[in-house]
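Researcher: Next sequence.
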Amino acid sequence: MALTNSLLLIVKNKFPEHAQRIEALFSAEDDFRALCLDYVLCLEYLQKFKNESQEKKLCVKEYKDVRAALENELSQFILNGLAG
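Model: Next structure:
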């Protein structure tokens, strides 16, 4: 029942001007319920991929920073020889 309410709420929030029609279709039509479920799953996956993408961007930036530091260190060794 909670899933049904969540599906209805999400779809009605997207199309608020059609809230009554959405409820009627959801009650009467299996295909419409399946379409609503597909829509909500799509939204969830988009959010998941967006979050993963942001995390990956952060990792890429961190690795670029590490690469720059390592390149600098390599350069120091090459130009100045072993320290110490």
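Model: The helical segments are 2-14, 19-28, 30-80. Residues 25 and 32 are 6 Å apart (CA to CA).
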